[in-house]
From TrEMBL:
Residues 227-252, 384-469 are annotated as: Disordered. Residues 384-399 have a biased composition (Low complexity). Keywords: DNA recombination, DNA-binding, Transposition. This is Transposase.
Length: 469
């Protein structure tokens, strides 16, 4: 069994919106109370209250109605988040990461989670539990839940990307295939992660490979960065000083900016999901049962200049790996992370070191190999194991290459990869045919009748035709 989470927006009235924000603020009050209690204990040099059961006992001592409409189940979900964060920080500090700090920051809005049996979903209407004595809260979802109703295990109310939404978590079984069509664990495929190509996949035998283009995702990042710079230059004059709240116009501008930021993040996230879905679907078709993924997260700590550091920040390596692992687990495919150092500068045929090419094609000066650089790296990764050993079979990479694109929903991708803010080029059917020229005199030998302009006879706009004698 694997767990999957879908984020769904809400269609609510103003009164329902205020009640939802009231629940999130009450959850923030629970978080602040735990921080204050532990601050008192720290000043008295007492043991902090970090265990979930101990925190639940403190919540029960506070009595009903202390946190508004928030019920005990939602308050306990906040306590669970605090307990997990505290013990995670303690484990990392014990491992030697002294810069890690315990949770001490207050939050105005905290996500609230309710578990199976405390909420009900009927169609697109979800009934959220509230405290005893408060009227029930029923909200409408903007789309149906993509999972069967009996598999939903929890719902989480949160405020993300400038809007209220719920995260629906379901427990799904691993995909079952007919006999003879299930993925074979002995069939291995290497996966090379990149910026221009999010996924480059090649089987260990070199017969099949997949190349997913992410140029639309890169264009979305660039256009969003340019729009953000323009928007900040335009609103810099009316920005409030430090410590000031700002005018109502400024708050509306900031709200609009948050909505645009959220839309950009949703677009990129959806494109990454589409790319990972393409990779997993291709692997199922090829009966690949094991993914050997090159882990490039080691390059994040290396200074590479202002421009390349920006590319690495926009890469979202961790999210890409997580999405691929989740979808592969649902399909019954195992994922192993290996070191990808030197894969883009090693010939997959003769396994000799070559200089890294500047373009996308690799040519080995020692042998006759020539091919795509990312696919060559994926083939080299397919022969590596998590312990560092190399098991590349003696085969030459080649065969069939499948090309796919990620981010077809992004603006400007449907017709062409160009900036959608620019005006499209004028075609012959839409534009002018040019400057009208007078008809040549009859003595020249024109085939049009006397006194007739040949440009007046057109079958379609933008075309010219002459009527013979």
């Amino acid at each position: 069994m694997v767990h999957r989470t879908a984020r769904i927006g809400l269609r609510i009235t103003r009164a329902q919106r205020q009640r939802c924000f009231g629940l999130l603020r009450s959850a923030g009050d629970v978080w602040a109370c735990v921080l204050e209690v532990n601050a008192w204990r720290r000043r008295r040099r007492d043991k902090p209250a970090a265990g979930f059961q101990e925190l639940c006992r403190l919540l029960a001592q506070s009595g009903p109605g202390t946190f508004g409409e928030l019920d005990s189940v939602g308050a306990r979900s906040v306590l669970r988040n605090y307990s997990d964060a505290w013990f995670s920080a303690a484990a990392r500090r014990k491992a030697g990461h002294s810069q890690v700090r315990f949770p001490r920051r207050r939050r105005g809005l905290m996500p609230v989670r309710w578990y199976h049996g405390t909420f009900t979903v009927t169609g697109q209407v979800m009934r959220i539990p509230t405290a005893r004595g408060c009227p029930p809260l029923a909200v409408r979802l903007d789309r149906p839940i993509p999972y069967p109703a009996d598999t939903v295990r929890s719902v989480t109310l949160l405020f993300a990307d400038g809007r209220l939404c719920v995260d629906v978590t379901a427990e799904l079984p691993v995909t079952v295939y007919p006999a003879g069509q299930e993925p074979d664990p002995r069939r291995v495929a290497g996966v090379d992660l990149g910026i221009i190509h999010p996924f480059a996949v090649a089987t260990a035998d070199g017969e099949h490979s997949l190349l997913v283009s992410g140029r639309a995702i890169r264009a979305e990042h660039r256009m969003h960065l340019a729009d953000t710079k323009t928007r900040r230059r335009a609103t810099a004059a009316r920005a409030p000083s430090k410590g000031e709240r700002g005018s109502r116009r400024w708050r509306k501008t900031r709200r609009r900016a948050r909505l645009i930021e959220g839309r950009h993040r949703r677009r990129v996230r959806q494109a990454l999901h589409e790319a990972a879905k393409t990779v997993v679907g291709w692997a199922v078709h090829q009966r690949v049962g094991t993914f050997t993924v090159g882990d490039p997260r080691g390059v994040l700590d290396l200074p590479a200049g202002r421009r390349h550091n920006l590319r690495l920040r926009q890469w979202q390596i961790g999210r890409t790996l997580q999405i691929l692992q989740d979808k592969a687990a649902l399909a019954g495919i195992r994922v192993h992370l290996v070191d990808e150092r030197g894969t883009s500068s090693t010939c997959p045929a003769c396994h000799r070191r070559i200089s890294k090419p500047r373009g996308r094609n690799m040519t080995c000066p020692h042998c006759a190999f020539a091919g795509h650089r990312d696919l060559a790296a994926a083939y080299t990764i397919a022969g590596r194991t998590p312990d560092g050993a190399t098991t590349t079979p003696p085969a030459t990479p080649g065969g069939m290459v499948t090309h796919r694109r990620a981010g077809r929903h992004l603006p400007g991708v449907a017709r062409a990869r160009r900036d959608p803010r620019r005006r499209p080029p004028r075609t012959a059917t839409e534009g002018s045919v040019g400057r009208r020229r007078p008809a040549p005199p009859p003595a020249v030998g024109s085939r049009s009748p006397n006194g007739e302009d040949p440009q007046l006879h057109r079958t379609t706009p933008g075309e010219r035709s002459w009527t013979p004698h």
